Amino acid sequence: MLRIGYRAHDLGSFTSASELGKRIEEIRKTSFIQLALKKVIPSSKPWQEWDEEYISSITSELKAHGVSVAIVGCYINPIHPDPEKRKLEVERFRKSLSLTKAFGCPYVATETGSWHPELKYSIETSDPKNIGIFKESLSEMLDAAEKYDAYVAIEAVSRSHSISSPERMRDILDTFRTDRLKVIFDPVNLIPYTGLPEPDGVPLRIPTAETEHKFVTEVLDLYGDRLIAIHCKDYILTEEAGLKIGNLPALTGCFRWKEFAEEVHRRNIDVPWLMENLDPKTVAETATVLERL
Fold first, then answer.
1. Distance CA 137, CA 200 (A)
2. Is the pLDDT of residue 1 over 90?
3. What's 176's DSSP letter?
4. I want to staple 62 with a disulfide (CB 3.0 to 4.6 A). Which of 21, 86, 177, 250 is the partner?
5. Closest by alpha carbon to 286, among 247, 243, 257, 244?
6. What are the C-alpha distances in Å from 231 to residues 6, 181, 222?
7. Is residue 137 within 8 Å of residue 100, measured between CB atoms?
8. Buried b / exposed e across 135-149, counting CB within 10 Å, b at 16+?
9. pLDDT tens per residue across span 26-53
10. Mean pLDDT throughout 209-227?
């Protein structure tokens, strides 16, 4: 069976780790999460004030409800256009790396940033110069990971982030040949904004099974051996413009999760699946269906 967990802040905002743990316990008795602390518990201390005692108190409250941390989410902008703010972003990531033992999880994850200071879309993000900036930030993060016996996990996102394609991700992995660098694979995030092109170059409203399988296998061939988690949600293409809406609960769009699971099983990839953009009303049922794929 698949190991199904949740991106915690998709369950809502909570006043304490205990309240969050209780909500997850209502879904199932034992589970795990991706924890971006400030996103899910807005009243938690600023990251500058985190220490081992404080983070351990958070994880202890979660464990009391059978909840463990599979990934520490640290959503920074590693290519922020302001060098001073970019430095602060990297420092925030380093802080999370320094506390992985208190989190009870060695993996700290981020997406790869936008040239827009508020992480919105910018045409400048795709400029190759920003790949160089990302590599500079990543190098500092990996140095900290080595220091604290932790791991940096990155996720590619089509169109809007600096690492926006499987090929760009492969370049990063080839540049940094260290076991300290891992990958999260979100198939929906990597599907192009206009959909997957068929052999004739034209996307369909729902891609053929062959085209989707080709996309999945090419990614897994590139870096399936570096995965530490799979993000699980769904998408459709809009009727009006044929553009991707990629924030739907899993099993409510057009991605073939059953076939994807079969390919993952075939490759013996045993990593957590973390549900995103979930519907709180149906999350338990969806998790059960996914678990049995």
1. 39
2. no
3. -
4. 21
5. 257
6. 9, 17, 17
7. no
8. bebbeebbebbeebe
9. 998 889 999 999 999 999 999 999 999 9
10. 98
Contacts of 145 (CB under 8 A, 6+ apart): 97, 108, 151, 152, 180, 181
Exposed, middle or buried, 84 (CB in 10 Å: 0-12/13-18/19+)? Answer: exposed
CA 162 from centre of chain: 15
Q: Are strands 244-248 and 234-237 parallel, antiparallel or unpaired?
A: antiparallel
Helix (H) or strand (E) holding 95: helix 83-98
Amino acid occupying residue 131? I
The answer to whether residues 66 and 5 touch, using CB atoms and an 8 Å cutoff, is no
User: Strand (E) positions, 52-208?
Assistant: 67-73, 107-111, 151-155, 181-185
With beta carbons less than 8 A apart as the criterion, state whether 233 and 247 touch: yes
Residue ranges of domains in the chain, CATH in brackets: 4-291 (3.20.20.150)
Place of tokens 């795709």: 126
